[in-house]
Each structure stands twice: as C-alpha cells, then as structure tokens.
Amino acid sequence: MNRNGQEKTGEVPVLFLLKSLLFSYILTGGLLLLLALLLYKAGLSRKVVSVCIIVIYVLATFLAGFITGKRLKNRKFLWGALMGAAYFLVLVMISLAVNRQLGALTNSFLTTLVLCSGGGMLGGMLS
Fold first, then answer.
1. What is the torsional sign of CA 93, 95, 99, 101?
2. Which of 4, 12, 72, 92 has the fewest C-beta atoms lying within 10 Å of its C-beta?
3. Residues 88-111: pLDDT tens digits?
4. Please, are residues 54 and 118 in contact by the beta-carbon 8 Å criterion?
5. Cα-trace Rg, the chain
6. 98: how many CB neighbours lie within 10 A of its CB?
C-alpha cells in the first residue's frame, strides 16, 4: 500500500485472496449443513446428494472467483481459475488428512479440479 492507502498496481493482495478462499469454504460448510438437513428430513437419494455436492463446489468457487475478479480488475478469469484451483487444493488436503490414502481421490480427481477451476474462472469472467 502506498501513503494514500491505495494498493500499488502489480501487487498480489494475498490476504484478500485468503479471505476470499475462507469465504468460499464458509459458504460450502453452510450449504453442506443445509444439504445434510435435507438428507435427514427428505431422505434424498445418493444421486441427488452427489449432484448437490457438485453444485455446491461450483457455486462456492464461482463466488470466490467473482469476488476476486471484482477486486483485482485485471486478468479476472485467471484469478478466478486460480481461486478455484486453490479451493480444490485445500479440498484435496482435507480429503487426504481425513482418509489418509490416495485411493479416495482418484475416482473424480480430474473432474472435480475442472469443475472448481471452471467455476472460479466463470465467476472471474462475469465479475
């Protein structure tokens, strides 16, 4: 930041990117809790739950990309895609910490990466 409190051009606001990523995970947690409630009350099928989880991932990364694109105003699609990829990376680390094996990731690894990065990129482009 310069003396006027404005960011210098070309600087990457790491703290803002982390806040945006945290926002997307808070949103994900809230939506997954809502999905769990719906699963409990309505007895949703496994296929419906799987589709809802994918929609939650895409929505969370879309909003993270949108917020990031609004703030950075430069190469928005790239920042959005990077936010989606960062979201996916944290998702992978959490999955590895919980499952302690790589086998659980291989089923839909590439598909989830594309969905998360694509959702973030779309959010960045539309910001």
1. negative
2. 4
3. 999 888 888 887 776 655 668 888
4. no
5. 16
6. 9
pLDDT tens figures, 11-68: 778 899 999 999 999 999 999 999 999 999 888 888 999 899 999 999 999 999 999 9
**Using CA atoms, how far apart are residues 124 and 127, in angstroms rounded to an integer?**
5
Enter the tokens of residue 55. Answer: 């929609």
DSSP codes, 64-124: HHHHHHHHH-SSHHHHHHHHHHHHHHHHHHHHHHHH-SSTTTTTTHHHHHHHHHHHHHHHH
Structure tokens at 64: 């993270």
**3-class secondary-structure state, position 3:** coil
pLDDT band at 4 (very low <50, low <70, confident <90, very high): very low
Task: Give the type of residue at 18.
Answer: L
Domain spans, the chain: 15-126
